Amino acid sequence: DTEVTQTPKHLVMGMTNKKSLKCEQHMGHRAMYWYKQKAKKPPELMFVYSYEKLSINESVPSRFSPECPNSSLLNLHLHALQPEDSALYLCASSQDHATNEKLFFGSGTQLSVL
Amino acid sequence: DQQVKQNSPSLSVQEGRISILNCDYTNSMFDYFLWYKKYPAEGPTFLISISSIKDKNEDGRFTVFLNKSAKHLSLHIVPSQPGDSAVYFCAASPFTGTASKLTFGTGTRLQVTL
């Protein structure tokens, strides 16, 4: 199983809503990542979890709250988002974040904030 | 400041011909380079990588060339096939070589025509 599964695939939410994005991998990878990608732009790193602990937060606003319940799961909790947060949110995993390991990406959640 | 640049947003190549995708970088600390391919509605998938100790790496129809003095790398696809039509992202990682420090380029959309 070399898949990273993300749900939902599409999400529309209002600025007062609370929602969560979910990500799952069963490759035994110990590093998991959240990226944000706007149209015609490269993916931008948001958070890195290593061995279930948050190791990198790229100055992401607190309205985005990551959670790693176990080594296979990664969540991104969303609250009070702004329309400019509309983007494709990609989850990725790798064997370890401290080596030149290739990333395995999920298919993403296309988020629209109204 | 875009440290990894893909100056051609799109490229059209006839089936059977060679596709050459280019990538330039500005950070001399980059040590490891990767190419990812992305189909619509899917996450990026790893294609091929190269370490700075090499100047060429080959995997089937895909070859990556690295010119460190010019801070330039290129991906060659020979022969090009319609299934290669996708967006190709170049990515670079610094000397410390961590997957969490990947910087992506803006992507080149390749269209392989019949």
Which properties best describe this structure?
heterodimer, A: 114 residues, mainly beta, 11 strands, B: 114 residues, 6-stranded mixed β-sheet, 5-stranded antiparallel β-sheet, 0% helix
Question: What would you say about this model in short?
Answer:
The complex is a heterodimer of chains A (114) and B (114). Chain A has no helices and 11 strands.
Write the layout of secondary structure elements.
The complex is a heterodimer of chains A (114) and B (114).
Chain A: E1 4-7, E2 10-13, E3 18-25, E4 31-37, E5 44-50, E6 53-57, E7 64-70, E8 73-79, E9 87-94, E10 104-105, E11 109-113
Parallel strand pairs in A: 2-11
Antiparallel strand pairs in A: 1-3, 3-8, 4-5, 4-9, 5-6, 7-8, 9-10, 9-11
Chain B: E1 4-5, E2 10-14, E3 19-25, E4 30-38, E5 45-51, E6 56-59, E7 62-67, E8 72-77, E9 86-94, E10 103-104, E11 108-113
Describe the 3D structure:
Chain A is mainly beta. Chain A has no helices and 11 strands. Chain B is mainly beta and 114 residues long. Chain B is built from no helices and 11 strands. Chain B has strands spanning 4-5, 10-14, 19-25, 30-38, 45-51, 56-59, 62-67, 72-77, 86-94, 103-104, 108-113. In chain B, the strands form 2 sheets. In chain B, strands 2, 4, 5, 9, 10 and 11 form a 6-stranded mixed β-sheet that branches. The chains are: A mainly beta (114), B mainly beta (114). The interface between A and B is medium-sized, with 31 and 25 residues.
